[in-house]
Amino acid sequence: MGNGGGGGEGVILSGQVLSFRASPFDAPPAEAVALHEAVAMHNGRILATGTRAALRARFPGMPVEDHANRLISAGFVDAHVHYPQTAIIASWGKRLIDWLNTYTFPEEMRFGDPDYARAVSERYLDLTAAHGTTTMCSFCTIHPESVSAFFEAARARGQRVIAGKTCMDRNAPDGLRDDARSAHDDSLALLERWHGVDRLSYAITPRFSPTSSQAQLEALGALWAAHPDCLMQTHLSEQTDEIAWMRELWPGARDYLDTYEAHGLLGANGLYGHAIHLEPRERDRLAETGAAVVHCPTSNAFIGSGLFDMAGLVGRMRVGLATDTGGGSSFSMLRTMAAAYEIAQLRGAALHPAQLWWLATAGSARSLGQQDRIGNPVEGMEADLIAVDLASTPSIAQASARAGDIWEAVFPTIMMGDDRAIAQVWIGGRPQRV
Ligand code: GUN
Ligand code: ZN
């Protein structure tokens, strides 16, 4: 494995090492961001950042790998994905409910076959590693096999991932429904099998309130109450047609969030994807309970869902950033940052590149409750890192050549970069083949 820092003697990487002292939504970028010449890692952990000379003096004999002026950052953290939708990414012409029925459900049906689930897990983790994503929080399918296949593939790579069995007991086709009891019992068995094993965590995962009965949401609420350290992930207020349908199905609910809240599915370890068309009460309750929402900008544009209110929400609650593969149209968190920038512009605010980079790393880690482990290369954190080429294509190179500071150098890669910008990836200190 070479001098990867996964074991043995460790390694010093030199380049432009980026870490965060604070959220750039809370402090000016110059205060929030620290740049260092080098980072040292050993046994899968970050030992220190600093000048090359200081780290060489502190860790004599440790090999130095020179990345010139590449940006060395925490690996990207994708806070909401559906790995089983890998093969149907970029499917044409539908809005949410039609898109689910036409493309998603038929594909998800295939994941009862463990060989297929394994093959797509491997493909998905290869693709995302090539794009610099080192942790993701994934929906699986209703099949327990789909969860175990994903966890086994991630575990073999030493990767920190969060995932759960997607529960649905109505408004889904034959072969893609569980029931209240089996959703609870299968989720519990998976949670007991996988939660806390190596770098794996289980997330209790009702798909969304239109595809769950009241009995199912209650059963999953009880499961969460018994295992409150698990995340609970679902979807919230993504598309106006979906909200109208939710209202027909849940006539007694005050609003969309209430369908979860009334069944014990609102709390600080709750993760609510999309959260676009929120009522004032929903914003207040999300903020009061300490819940996190996840912005999925390429998906929200691609499926035609709407414009997330970053400026209105980011000061009130934790916000993660996500591809939402395969409703999202890219595996790339760079492309996702670009879409977040564009959507904020459509709402009249320009997100600073430091804010975008924070959302894709430390901010997403915080939304997942993993901020003490991943998303920021400072001492003691896990060594999931990427080296980013800031001149990876002629278009980007000619724009970044004019840069007067680091953020002018990074922004063309945010807006135009893809997997070609990801020069190297380390997971748990081990270099990956990308
Ligand atoms: N709402 C319920 N299920 C899904 C899904 O798979 N993708 C998206 N984007 N929204 C959903
Ligand atoms: Zn989703």
Describe the structure.
Strands 5, 6, 7, 8, 9, 10, 11, 12 and 13 form a nine-stranded parallel β-sheet that branches. The protein has a seven-stranded mixed β-sheet with strand order 3-2-1-4-14-15-16. Helix 6 packs parallel to helix 7 (214-226) and helix 14 crosses helix 16 (406-416). Strand 8, helix 6 and strand 9 (200-206) form a beta-alpha-beta unit. It has 434 residues and is of the alpha/beta class. It has 16 helices and 16 strands. The protein starts with 10 loop residues before the first strand and ends with a strand. It has helices at residues 29-32, 52-58, 96-108, 114-130, 144-156, 180-194, 214-226, 240-249, 256-261, 280-289, 297-302, 310-313, 333-346, 353-367, 394-400, 406-416; strands at residues 11-20, 33-42, 45-50, 64-74, 76-82, 133-139, 161-164, 166-167, 200-206, 231-236, 270-274, 292-295, 318-321, 385-388, 422-427, 430-431. The longest helix has 17 residues, at 114-130. The protein folds into two domains: 11-75 and 375-432, Urease, subunit C, domain 1; 76-367, Metal-dependent hydrolases (TIM Barrel). Bound molecules: guanine (GUN) and zinc ion.
